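thread: overnight batch results

M.L. [08:02]
morning all. the overnight job finished for the chain we discussed friday. pasting input first so we're all looking at the same thing
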Amino acid sequence: MSIEYDEKGKYYTDIIKKLPVSVVIQTSVQLIRGFVHVKQGERLKNELERDENFLAVTDASVIGTNDRVLFSVPFMAVRRSHIIWIMPTDEKEEDTSE
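M.L. [08:03]
and the structure it wrote out:
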């Protein structure tokens, strides 16, 4: 990690702050609940438009019939081409600017 300082003492790093967004993802065969991390100030749509093969999902649970959790993992990479739809489960994202 590199840290650079300007003349006023403000520092810059190559760490990008991301906020977790609770989502439900429907793939071609599974329903997944978890969190997609979005850059601060951006929308979930911006994260989906990135030119990457996989979408990172944290605290992921694969849901079977009757809302039964088949398994849960701390991290899952979901192939973007397998996503049918995705939606946030919260009405609004957390505001940490206060």
